[in-house]
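Hello forum,

I keep getting stuck at the same step: I have a sequence, I want structure tokens, and every attempt I make locally crashes halfway through. Rather than fight my setup again tonight, could one of you with a working pipeline run this one for me? It's a single chain of 247 residues.
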Amino acid sequence: MRVDVAPVPPADTPRDRTCLVVDVLRATSVLAVLFGRGVRALYPVGSVEEARALREELAAEGAVLLCGEVGGLPPDGFDFGNSPGEFASLAALPAERAVVATSNGTPALLACAGAPLTLAAAPLNASAAVALALEAGRDVLVVCSGLRREPAEDDLLAAGLLVARFVELGAEPEAEAEQALERYRAAADDLAAGLRASEHGKSLVALGFDHDIDFCAEPDRYDVAGALGIEAGRPVLRPAYPRGGER
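Reply #2:
Ran it on my machine without issues. Output:
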């Protein structure tokens, strides 16, 4: 098995690789928390307007949350923003479905919708995401969401962590994966500090979300990853567990 890294979402979705999409600060970290807390369906969309329209449509079938951010903050009328720490601290989630729109993470997931398997991955669920990818038996592309369509240091660090897990299990890293792995190894003793020093990390600190950075750097808190599929013409993430895991 080979593993590589895309520093930004590819223009053409790989048709022969499993894609692990990473937006460590903070979209795929939030998705890990939500599935870890029992959410059964997450609908990623590319804009705030699409999110509002889809929530209204889905509300006819029962309760559905509206979550996400623009510039790191929740848009008007959203139930929640994009803080994994906030979701983890709730006594209970008010619904088992949510529509999610973020600046970088949800567009990256949608860009990979044509892959044979697309998983939402983060340090928080690294072992689960890697195990699911290994079970699928294909070469892997770790897709960084990036920042404003440019490579982002925080995502490259998180991608390097995932590459390290694959390499430990016998995968062969390709060129971009080697570079991400070197970045991660240089920061591995204090991943949170590396994330905090990135452009995106500094922005979150300025917005008052410093606590989220420490949370996002924690590995393997959850044993589930979101797997992207299409249902009734809509992209939807459902919880996926490695063999032998919780269902």
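The mean pLDDT is 96. If your local run keeps crashing, start a new thread with the error log.
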